[in-house]
Amino acid sequence: MHEVIAWLEPFRDRGKDVAACIDCYRNNQDRMHEGQYVRRGMQVGSGVVESPGRQLVGKRLEQPGSHRTQAGADHLTAIKACLHENWWADCLDRNANRVLAA
């Protein structure tokens, strides 16, 4: 982890997001044990999370002739997640005011 922080530190002045990333690594390095997880054969990359997202939403957004705004894509993502996880009651409760206001 020290190597990652040392590598990132020269880029700190590139913006507050970069500085926040470096600070996050520094403040949480005692909790990050990638080496132990890799030795146990566990996943440490983001692919395990990104792949289902690509499968769930990406295919729909990338169909020929599909044209979406960012807002439309965000809404579609939320709807697909609710469908996939059977969270309709929760989604409707959270978004009822937004839907009624529209």
% residues in beta strands: under 5%
> Taking all residues together, what is the mean pLDDT?
76
How would you describe the shape?
extended
Please report the total strand number as a whole number: 0
Q: Uncertain regions: pLDDT < 50 for 5+ in a row?
A: none
Radius of gyration of CA atoms, rounded to a whole number: 19 Å
Roughly how many Å apart are the termini?
47 Å
The helix-strand sequence is HHHHHH
Structural class: mainly alpha
Share of residues in helices: 55-70%
Largest sheet report? none
Q: Helix segment count?
A: 6
Summarize it.
The chain is mainly alpha-helical and 102 residues long. The chain contains 6 helices and no strands.
Q: What features would you describe in this structure?
A:
This protein is an all-alpha fold and 102 residues long. The protein has helices at residues 2-8, 16-28, 34-39, 47-61, 70-85, 88-101. The longest helix has 16 residues, at 70-85. The protein starts with a helix and ends with a helix.
